[in-house]
Amino acid sequence: MNENQVDAILGKAKTIASVGLSANAAKPSHEIGVYLLSQGYTVIPVNPREATILGQTSFPTLDAIPETIDVVQIFRPSQDVPPIVDQAIRIGAKAIWMQQGVVHEGAAATAEAAGLVVVMDRCMRTEHQRWKGAGRRGA
């Protein structure tokens, strides 16, 4: 993964499905979701335990989302990543973004073989702030 690929995702993505987004405002996933919404992205929560998060309808799985997804953002333990990647491929997502601390080389290889761009072990908010600070326009 190089910076140009990260920048391309940040600049082109409009809709982010956030798997593991928490309704708990103290959790990093919640804070990052708030940030991404404030930057103009559509954030779709994927959490089977919640009906709504951040004022958005929460879906139990990626397969249940009725719209096109650009990026599947993953806030789940690394061992939970493979079935999420399988769903992302099935729904036609363009990219997988494993948040900081989430790494699964096998799932990343599966996603890349299916044509998805993969980011691992990086915080989308941190990368977006870097991208915006570099003078990029977009979300």
Give the topology, please:
Layout: H1 3-12, E1 15-19, H2 28-38, E2 42-46, E3 52-53, E4 56-57, E5 71-74, H3 81-91, E6 95-98, H4 105-113, E7 117-119, H5 124-133
Parallel strand pairs: 1-2, 1-5, 5-6, 6-7
Antiparallel strand pairs: 3-4
Helix pairs in contact: 3-4
Q: What is the alpha-carbon Rg in Å?
A: 14 Å
Largest sheet: 5 strands, parallel
Number of helices: 5
Sheet with most strands: strand arrangement: 2-1-5-6-7
Mean pLDDT: 94
Class computed from helices, strands and strand pairing: alpha/beta
Overall, the morphology is globular
Give the low-confidence spans: none
Number of strands: 7
Describe this structure in words.
The structure is a single chain. By secondary structure, the protein is an alpha/beta fold. 37% of the residues lie in helices and 18% in strands. It has helices at residues 3-12, 28-38, 81-91, 105-113, 124-133; strands spanning 15-19, 42-46, 52-53, 56-57, 71-74, 95-98, 117-119. The protein has a 5-stranded parallel beta sheet, with helices on both faces. Strands 3-4 form a two-stranded antiparallel sheet. Helix 3 packs parallel to helix 4 (105-113). The model has no long low-confidence stretch (mean pLDDT 94).
Features:
37% helix; 7 strands; alpha/beta; 18% strand; 139 residues
Summarize this, please?
The chain has 139 residues and is an alpha/beta fold. It has helices spanning 3-12, 28-38, 81-91, 105-113, 124-133, and strands at 15-19, 42-46, 52-53, 56-57, 71-74, 95-98, 117-119.
